[in-house]
Design a protein that fits this description.
The structure is a single chain. By secondary structure, the chain is of the alpha+beta class. The protein has a single domain, classed as Cytochrome c-like domain (Cytochrome Bc1 Complex, Chain D, domain 2, Orthogonal Bundle), CATH 1.10.760.10. The chain contains 10 helices and 6 strands. The two termini are about 40 Å apart.
Length: about 260
């Protein structure tokens, strides 16, 4: 086997696990239109993460002061509302939970979520956080369409409400005369059986903001990288002109 073929097989072997991992349960993922320029969304997402996720999940590669600076949150406001326990403004966003204890309690230590948006993709996270449903057979009473047999509780259940899988009326189209939804009874449908503190639209917005924040955390320099990328491409475009003529002049006498 040639060296080129070996490299090709190695590349395919490397990508296959990533593809399978990203595909998850094979359900159709809902689109998350990430907007890292929406500072208000990022601030709301940070608040949701700290209040609902950070009891178990850390962001150990991020610092409070960097998040505050990037999201335009004053230090005093950050310390009063988003920094708890004995943490300082410049500390890493770690948690007090001991990994050994966490493994005993949950069967596996809850992972750090600093890079989860890069590993799992925003669309997957957005779908995952919206597809928990009631399942009495599971240890925490819930399951998930995007992550079957999930091993964590639905920490946002009070906000979303009681979501179940069952028979429900589903809109399958529009009546051309009345412009009303054409409803059809279908089995194995995911629906809200009991409303939570938020409406469906409000909950989707909360999850959108949370995922938006996790995308930012995974690469805080993303906007700066895009800005620098524009200037680099512009430089290369202008630099190409003298290089082209220099190359043409260099090879003119070469036969």
């Amino acid at each position: 086997m040639s060296l080129r073929m070996k490299k090709l097989f190695a590349l395919v072997a490397l990508c296959l696990p990533m593809t399978v991992f990203a595909a998850g349960a094979g359900i159709e993922l809902d689109e998350h239109r990430t907007d890292l320029r929406d500072t208000a969304s990022l601030q709301r997402g940070a608040q949701t993460f700290v209040n609902y996720c950070m009891g178990c999940h850390s962001l150990k590669h991020s610092r409070y002061n960097r998040v505050a600076s990037d999201l335009g949150i004053p230090e005093e406001l950050m310390m009063d509302n988003l920094v708890f326990a004995d943490k300082s403004f410049g500390d890493l966003m770690t948690i007090a939970m001991d990994p050994v204890d966490a493994k005993t309690w949950f069967g596996v230590a809850p992972p750090d979520l600093t890079l989860v948006a890069r590993v799992r993709r925003p669309d997957w996270l957005y779908t995952y956080l919206r597809t928990f449903y009631e399942d009495p057979t599971r240890p925490y009473g819930v399951n998930n369409l995007a992550f079957p047999q999930v091993g964590m509780p639905h920490v946002l259940a009070d906000l979303q409400g009681r979501q179940v899988i069952g028979t429900a009326q589903v809109a399958v189209g529009k009546d051309p005369l009345t412009n009303q939804d054409i409803m059809e009874e279908q089995d194995h449908v995911l629906y809200i059986a009991e409303e939570g503190q938020l409406t469906e639209a409000e909950y989707d917005k909360l999850v959108y903001d949370l995922v938006n924040f996790l995308v930012y955390v995974a690469e805080p320099i993303a906007l700066e990288r895009e800005r620098l990328g524009f200037w680099v491409l512009l430089f290369l475009a202008f630099f190409f002109i003298p290089v082209y003529f220099m190359n043409k002049e260099f090879w003119r006498d070469v036969k």
